[in-house]
Amino acid sequence: MTDIPQPDHPPMEWANAVSTRPSLEGAVKDVVEQLKHRLTGAPDLGIVFISSSFTSEFARLLPLLHDLLPIPALVGCSGGGIVGMDDQGHPQELEDTPALSLTLARLPGVTVRSFHLSSDDLPDLDSPPNAWSELMGVAPEANPQFILMADPFSSNVTDLLQGLDFAYPSGVKIGGLASVDGFNRHSGLFCDRTLHTEGAVGVALAGPIVLDTIVAQGCRPIGPVYRVDKAERNILLSLSDPEDSDSARPPLELLQELFETLPEGDRQLAQSSLFIGMAQDSFKLSLNPGDFLIRTLLGVDPKMGAIAVGDRLRPGQRVQFHLRDAHTSATDLEALLQRYQQQTPVAIAPVGALMFSCMGRGAGLYNQANFDSGLFAQYLPGLPIGGFFCGGEIGPVGQTTFLHGFTSVFGICRQP
């Protein structure tokens, strides 16, 4: 681990550059050259994302970077697609081409702690919070914010997120699962001067820093909100009207009735893109789309009328069926960006952002390049952004951090 306390300095600075040069040396030189004069001093943090196309050269990336630019804390991973700023200051999503994205940040007064964790390092989930804070080397009172990248096969990422939420309940955690190439299923995780192929890497940021989040799950609700009347683990057995506990019925029966009321386009969409949203706030009276955690429907039991869901359910929880398509994904993200723009004071200007997007989004979903990042830039113009296309996205819904799918998670960095 690297622990770097920062002295007082002028305001935060954040810059990103991307390169599509086919040689790794050329790409590294290109991004470093672009970034040389964009910060007023040496960076405190570097975040690097590299295409899976460079898999055979992952071991050379960190030495090449450190030879050209001293970066005291450097983390990152491989991605199926790479996000970064072109030389005109516009975001690019580079999905099917070799690419390298490097973000550099000066973070005055912020303690920057980079880390690598293997699955064997993680405390048991029954351990007290201090077991997790001792592992991370950051006191809970410091209220750190976390940026995480994990190997999709060996990271035990759900346990990691639960443990970090337990130890640091008010700290934001964002990130994604590294993508792998289609041949040997190898991912690359980078921490300071070391390449890792398993576990998780990341950085804890403590001090005068805020990570705002936008978690766009790309779904729209259909039908009414129901209350879970009976459930066993992830099996939904009966649903009722939230205002009438005596109205409990099998969920499959209610879903079939809902299906009959849908317009033809939604009926067709429901054949392949039907999900369930699980409200995360038990007390909020009026639920918005961002208040639901979207999970898949795994199967049905026609005899019992039960539905299997891709997460645990609890009696009393409110749920609502959802649909997902390109138009809905775009509308959902735009609504969240509008809300962020309206709620963020003009005086608190963000300095930079990270984007963690599902490989199921991008041009394959929208039939258009740079859609999510371009929409982001419409609402936060000129903000440097870097990121990658993930095998799973990490971000909060309500007060809890989850591993998502088909989602775009944005972390927006600003001073308090």
Automatic annotation (TrEMBL):
GO cellular component: plasma membrane
Entry keywords, A to Z: Cell membrane, Membrane, Transmembrane, Transmembrane helix
SMART domains, per database record: FIST, FIST_C
Localization of this protein: Cell membrane
Residue span, FIST domain: 42-243
Keyword rRNA processing attached: no
Keyword check for Nucleotide-binding: no
Pfam short name (any one): FIST_C
Alphabetical list of InterPro entries matching this protein: FIST_C (IPR019494), FIST_domain_N (IPR013702), UCP018953 (IPR016741)
Name assigned to this protein: Histidine kinase
Protein's organism: Phormidium tenue NIES-30
